[in-house]
Design brief:
heterodimer, A: 311 residues, alpha/beta, Glutathione S-transferase Yfyf (Class Pi), Chain A, domain 2, Rossmann fold, 4-stranded parallel sheet, B: mainly alpha, 2 domains, 54% helix
C-alpha cells in the first residue's frame, strides 16, 4: 500500500481495499450519522465499504456472552459466515461488535471442537458451515494498516488545530490483549497518533483507560451504576479541559452522549461535553459538513465544539 | 459463644467449581487456571465496578472454590461486572478472570437467576435480531442522511431473523429464557 501520496482531498481514488461493514445495533439504529460518515471517510481515503446483508446483533459479548456463551459464539459465527459467503472481510465501528466477532473467530481457530459444535448448529439453521476465512478488523486497524496515518494527514483540509480531545479507547478494542493483539492495554497510542494526524491535541486525563460503565449488561440492569462510571470519566475529562470526547465504540459513544443528559436529570449535574465519534472527527478534518454527519442530533449538544472550530 | 446454627450453616456444593470449569472449557482455553487463584486482590484493586458497588471478584472466586454455589449465583453483585477486562490483564496468575465471570454468569442464567432486564434484552434479540432495534425518529434521520430507511441488517432481511431464532432454539437457549421470562411476567402481574 502506497503511503502519503496525497492529492486525493475530495475525490475518491480507485479502491484498493474492500470491507463489509458490520453495523451491529447502536450504529445503524441510534447513530446513523456514524454509519454515513464512516462509509464516506473510507470512500475518500480509497477503501470501499459494502453492505453485510442480513447480519444481526453481534451479539453483545458481555451481555449475551454472559447468558450463554455457546449461543453467543454461534450467532457471532453466523455473522462471520455471511461475510465469508459474500467473499469479504469485516470492519466495524463498535468495540462490542469487534469483541464478539474477533473473539469468536479467534476461539474457533483455537478450539476445533468448538468450531465443529458451532457449525453443526449453523448448518441446521442456515444450511451452511463457516470455514474460517474471514478477517475481522476494527475500523482503527483499517485506517492504520490499510490506509496509513500519513495518507490521512495528507488528506486533511480542515485541521482540528487547538482542539483538545479526550480519547476514550473503550475496553473491548484493546482487551483481552492476548486475543486482540493491539499492543499495550495500559498505555495505548494508536488513537493519539490518529488525532495528531488530523491536527487535534489528545489530552491525558485521570483514569483514561477506565470503562464507560455500560458493558456487561450493567447499563441494562443497574443503570445508576453504569452512570456512576460515566460521571467519573466525564468529570476527569473536564478537569483536563477537554473540548470534545471521542471514542471508537458506538456503545461507549451512546453511553457518554445519552448518559450525560441522564446524569443531568438524575443528579442535577451540568455535564455537556460534546461527544463526537472518532470517524466523525476525521470527517470534519477531511472537509465534511457537520450536517451531513448528523452531529446536531446527538443528545449532548456539540455547539461549543463547533464554536471552537469556527464552524 | 453460642452459635445460631440456622444462620451460620452454609450449604456447600463441592462440585460447583468443577461444573463451572467443565462448561467454560468448552469455550475458552485454560479456564481451569481459576483454581490457582491466590486471593492476592490485584483484580479487586483495579476493578472500576468494585469502587462503587459491593462486587468483589476475588471473593467470587473464593466462594466458588469452597462451593458456596447459592451465594455465588443468587446475588446482584455478580451482574455488576462491566467485563472491562482490567483484572484479566493484570492477574499475576494469568487467570482469565473476566471470562470466568462470564462462565459463572452462564451457570446463573441456566439455573434460573437471570435478571429481569436481561431477560427483556433477550426478548429484543428474538423479536428483532438486534439488542437495540430501530425506532421511528432514527428511520427519519437515516432517510435525511441519504441512507436506506432500514439498515441492511436483519431489519431488512426477515429470513436472517429466522436463522437467529433457529440458532437460539437449537442451542436450547430460548427454552431456558422462556421459563424465566414467563415467571418474571407472572410476578409482575
Amino acid at each position: 500500500m502506497e503511503k502519503g501520496t496525497g492529492g486525493t482531498k475530495i475525490m475518491a481514488v480507485e479502491s484498493e481495499k474492500k470491507y463489509a461493514y458490520f453495523l451491529g445495533c447502536l450504529t445503524p439504529n441510534r447513530y446513523p450519522g456514524i454509519e454515513y460518515t464512516t462509509i464516506e471517510v473510507f470512500r475518500r481515503l480509497g477503501v470501499e465499504i459494502v453492505e453485510l446483508k442480513g447480519a444481526s446483533c453481534c451479539p453483545a459479548p458481555g451481555v449475551f456472552g454472559s447468558f450463554d456463551l455457546f449461543t453467543w459464539a454461534t450467532i457471532a459465527t453466523r455473522n462471520l459466515l455471511i461475510a465469508e459467503r459474500q467473499g469479504n472481510n469485516i470492519t466495524m465501528t463498535c468495540n462490542g461488535c469487534y469483541g464478539s466477532l474477533q473473539e469468536a473467530n479467534h476461539l474457533l481457530h483455537e478450539k476445533p471442537e468448538l468450531k465443529e459444535r458451532v457449525n453443526k448448529i449453523l448448518k441446521e439453521a442456515t444450511g451452511y458451515e463457516y470455514q474460517g476465512t474471514v478477517e475481522v478488523k476494527h475500523t482503527i486497524e483499517v485506517l492504520r494498516d490499510d490506509i496509513g496515518f500519513d495518507k490521512i494527514r495528507d488528506a486533511v483540509v480542515r485541521p482540528l488545530t487547538g482542539i483538545k480531545v479526550a480519547i476514550h479507547y473503550g475496553c473491548h478494542f484493546l482487551k483481552p490483549s492476548k486475543v486482540r493483539k493491539q499492543g499495550s492495554s495500559e498505555r495505548p497510542r494508536v488513537l493519539d497518533d490518529l488525532m495528531e494526524a488530523i491536527g487535534a491535541e489528545s489530552v491525558m486525563y485521570k483514569d483514561r483507560n477506565m470503562c464507560c460503565g455500560a458493558g456487561g449488561g450493567v447499563r441494562a440492569q443497574f443503570k445508576d451504576v453504569a452512570l456512576d462510571f460515566t460521571a467519573e470519566k466525564i468529570q476527569n475529562m473536564l478537569d483536563a479541559s477537554a473540548d470534545v470526547l471521542t471514542t471508537p465504540c458506538a456503545f461507549c459513544h451512546f453511553q457518554f452522549d445519552v448518559g450525560q443528559q441522564e446524569l443531568n436529570k438524575a443528579r442535577g449535574t451540568n455535564f455537556n461535553l460534546p461527544v463526537v465519534f472518532y470517524t466523525q472527527l476525521i470527517g470534519l478534518a477531511l472537509g465534511m459538513s457537520p450536517l451531513e454527519m448528523g452531529l446536531e442530533t446527538h443528545q449532548t449538544p456539540v455547539q461549543s465544539f463547533f464554536d471552537k472550530l469556527g464552524l | 459463644m453460642v452459635l445460631d446454627k440456622e444462620k451460620v450453616v452454609r450449604v456447600r456444593d463441592t462440585k460447583f467449581l468443577d461444573d463451572v470449569i467443565e462448561i467454560g472449557e468448552k469455550i475458552f482455553p485454560e479456564i481451569d487456571k481459576v483454581r490457582t487463584c491466590i486471593q492476592c486482590g490485584t483484580c479487586v484493586g483495579g476493578c472500576p465496578s468494585g469502587r462503587r458497588t459491593a462486587w468483589r471478584i476475588k471473593t467470587l472466586f473464593q466462594k466458588a472454590m469452597i462451593g458456596l454455589k447459592e451465594e455465588v449465583l443468587d446475588t446482584d453483585d455478580l451482574w455488576c461486572c462491566t467485563t472491562c477486562y482490567t483484572c484479566q490483564e493484570r492477574c499475576p496468575r494469568g487467570i482469565s478472570t473476566t471470562d470466568t465471570v462470564r462462565v459463572i454468569r452462564n451457570v446463573a442464567f441456566r439455573e434460573g437467576y437471570a435478571k429481569k432486564n436481561h431477560l427483556f434484552v433477550c426478548s429484543l434479540l428474538f423479536k428483532f435480531g438486534h439488542a437495540v432495534p430501530i425506532n421511528e425518529p432514527v428511520k427519519e434521520l437515516r432517510k435525511k442522511l441519504g441512507l436506506s430507511e432500514l439498515p441492511p441488517t436483519v431489519h431488512s432481511y426477515p429470513e436472517g431473523l429466522k436463522e437467529v431464532n433457529a440458532i437460539c432454539e437449537k442451542t436450547g437457549f430460548k427454552e431456558i429464557w422462556e421459563k424465566q421470562w414467563k415467571k418474571a411476567q407472572e410476578a409482575q402481574k
